[in-house]
Design a protein that fits this description.
Helix content: 40-55%
Number of domains: 1
Oligomer: single chain
CATH class: Alpha Beta
Number of strands: 5
CATH architecture: 2-Layer Sandwich
Order of helices and strands: EEEHEHEHHH
Strand content: 15-25%
Structural class: alpha/beta
Strand order of the largest sheet: 3-2-1-4-5
CATH topology: Nucleotidyltransferase, domain 5
Distance between the termini: 32 Å
Radius of gyration: 15 Å
Length: 171
Amino acid sequence: MTNHHPILALDPGLRELGYAVLDGPRLVASGVGALRFLPEAARLLEAKRLVRHWVRLYDPGVVILERTTEHPREGLSRVHRFATYVRRMASRYGQTVVVYSAQQVRKHLVGNGWAGKDAVAAVIAQRFPALRIYLTQDRQWKERYWQNMFDAVALALHHEAHPSSRSRSCG
């Protein structure tokens, strides 16, 4: 039993919501909250419910998010508002909130900030062989689906490896 709290990392999305829970070197849980089949009006509520569930279930000390920005396209703007909600909710629960850009994470894991999602997934599958099954799928949409999980795991690994350069964001 550890005396610290695990990390909850989220790849925010309102079609698919990737998540990973890392406790030290151990990947405790990872997956994707599938939201795409819900009516658009219900996706945000379900995404919030999932995050609250994971926070209660795993009691993370840190919540990691991939950076989002305000965007003129409504769909992307909703994702940014969801990420803002997660930051505020986690802060209310007393968790540290940290935000990283996708480029920071890819640069650390692959050596190239503009590497593709498949390169990131391959590195993660080397570290956690049980995830190899998600690398190749029989349909392209399935590969895109599981990329959300790999992105969340990548965020957690990046955070674990960079304790002194953590860019905190609480609002």
